[in-house]
Amino acid sequence: MSSRLDLLNARVPRYTSYPSAPHFNASVDGPVLRRWLEALPRREAVSLYLHVPFCSSLCWFCGCHTRVVNSYSPIAGYVDSLLRELALMDRALGAQRQLTHLHFGGGSPTLLSPDDIARLIDQIRDGFIINADTEFAIEIDPRGLTRETLEALAKAGVTRASLGVQDVNPAVQRAVNRWQPETVTRKAVEQLRETGITKLNIDLMYGLPKQTAADVERTVESIAALTPQRVAVFGYAHVPEMKGHQRLINDADLPGAEERMRHYETAHAALVARGYRAIGLDHFALPDDPLAVALAAGKLARNFQGYTTDVASALIGVGASAISSLPQGYAQNAAAGPEYGAKISADEFATVRGRALTADDRLRRAVIERLMCDLTVDLDAVASNHGASARAFATDIEALAPLQRDGLVHVDGHRVTVPEAKRAAVRLVCAVFDAYLSSGNTRHSVAV
């Protein structure tokens, strides 16, 4: 790849894990996960992710494992499975563990009834210790959010809420089947703060159909007025071969690579101008937010939820499609609800795929994480920490040459740096260190 357009069109992983999920395989199953959990040191703190794969309507841009439901019955049955899986986790872990982070994702976790939120929290507290130091975050669809749900979340101990907005232009919203007036988002923010949930994230998206750079600017202006502590600006991943419902989006309405880049640059400039600190590839935080503090201290981390302050060595995933990241490797549950539920009902872990990590995987994962977080990495330091030599990256450094010629990366000996003005290219640089990435892999999203 030599031209800028070629680089913008390249398809590479998002690097929320390494190896990335397409390289998981069936060698990791339920018994393997159980052994990995049993091997965790009993005094070591862990994180917990709980997946709720249901929505009240289908957003055509969605890349998540979720489905639309018209009644509460499927959700009620799924909650029963979650409770059983949590009990399985408790038995495998053998002792209560301190939770550093607890995250409810989806889908739309706010579809859970207040009673089921309470049941889940009670079960989690049976196996884990939640205290004042635990961050409890939940993803929220502002549409249809009720006062009863908000009160249940506050009672459960939620400390941070992440609200999906994407774009405030009605024409863009119609093009992706997500009607969400600005008044709806503003009301949700006000109600969250009234109930004591004051740490707020807002998720935006660029590269959407019918979206322009002016729309991105207007959206940033609208949400910045709400003063969330964090903002995420994700690039829309158009992968209809993987997500069939994305075929409902008219390809002709999608912006080209250069226009997508303008969207990204517009969002970045607009948020920085309003006092937000750029975090890695696509997150922004106010200077006093823990995410910005972690970045300044060189302690920023990255996991399946994006950028995080969480440094726990084990992230345990619960629910259909959920992924656990453990010292030994990754383990993913069955994505299909019936298969997940059947395995849990049989008192088995629902793990169907994953990846055991090799020494080289751990070494390259560390390099990729530092690049994704800090935009720079000292290969000598990382190699030393893993009992290796930076000479192991000789071929990778040579492969960076085309990116260097385009000004997307700077190499000084064994120090690799993505220039601040080129941070959008960081995934391309990471891909050079990816030993599993095959050329022409269309299962990934475009780099920018």
Describe the structure.
Helix 3 packs across helix 11 (337-345) and helix 4 (114-127) runs parallel beside helix 5. The model has no long low-confidence stretch (mean pLDDT 93). Helices cover 37% and strands 20% of the residues. Strands 1, 4, 5, 6, 7, 8, 9, 10, 11 and 14 form a ten-stranded mixed beta sheet that branches. A three-stranded antiparallel beta sheet has the order 15-16-17, with helices on one face. It has 448 residues and is of the alpha/beta class. The protein folds into two domains: 1-22 and 358-448, Orthogonal Bundle (Arc Repressor Mutant, subunit A), CATH 1.10.10.920; 23-356, pyruvate-formate lyase- activating enzyme (Alpha-Beta Horseshoe), CATH 3.80.30.
